[in-house]
Design brief:
2 strands
Length: about 240
């Protein structure tokens, strides 16, 4: 594939990656807002059929959120450094090639950024799925939760997805709490699932940028080689 065709593919991949990174940021931000809002407030859990209940703190004592921060960092990198930075790098690259016929240093730097961004996204993907699967078989001990109320639930460590899934399985007094948890769990699962296309798009963009650079360098090498060969032939004929 020629350098011009690869450049067109880069623009398409960059646009798709930017959109997906923005979606990732919005989903993670929605989860963070929930944790600081309704998710951090107590849930009323029904003890028995007589209507008595106890308050379960909205967050456990050991809530794991580092994978969310890593995903948020990957999304921010995709939007700012790869997305906006990519538009600037591509604009400067077109000017550099048109005026000087060579690759600009900014484009090389951006190419390196696409590699580092993909590695960060890959790390977020592995970390998130590994952490979620490690805690997926946990359940809330009803007696312990009731006995420790109103203190946070202290047994085990929990990801937001695992924790609120188990909270939603409890006999909550208010049906609205179930509806809210179902909605927010879709959001939390959404940014976890979104890491798959995010990682794929980052990989595609990275490969396209590397291939385009190699293609341009090869074509430039052929152009510089042809004049030297022609001058050598001319000198040979004169002799």
């Amino acid at each position: 594939m020629t350098s011009s065709r690869l450049m067109k593919a880069i623009y398409v991949a960059l646009l798709l990656l930017y959109i997906d990174a923005a979606i990732s940021l919005s989903l993670v931000s929605s989860m963070v807002a929930f944790l600081h809002g309704r998710g951090g407030q107590p849930f009323e859990v029904r003890r028995d059929l007589n209507g008595s209940f106890f308050n379960l703190p909205g967050e456990p004592a050991n809530l794991l959120t580092d994978h969310g921060h890593t995903t948020n960092a990957a999304g921010g990198t995709g939007v700012v450094l790869v997305g906006f930075g990519g538009l600037l790098a591509l604009w400067l690259e077109h000017r550099s090639r048109a005026k000087y016929g060579k690759v600009s240093p900014v484009y090389y730097l951006w190419a390196l950024t696409t590699i580092l961004s993909w590695l960060l996204t890959l790390a977020a993907f592995i970390y998130t799925y590994l952490l979620t699967n490690m805690h997926s078989d946990q359940s809330i001990d009803f007696a312990l939760a009731e006995g420790s109320s109103p203190k946070p639930y202290s047994r085990d460590s929990w990801t937001p997805e695992n924790w609120y899934t188990q909270v939603n399985n409890l006999p909550l007094v208010h049906g609205d709490d179930h509806d809210t948890l179902k909605k927010k769990l879709r959001t939390i699962r959404g940014w976890r699932y979104n890491l798959i296309p995010f990682m794929i798009l980052g990989f595609v963009l990275m490969v396209l940028v590397i291939l385009e650079l190699l293609s341009f360098r090869r074509s430039r090498g052929r152009k510089t080689k042809q004049p030297s060969e022609q001058s050598h032939e001319s000198a040979h004929l004169v002799a």
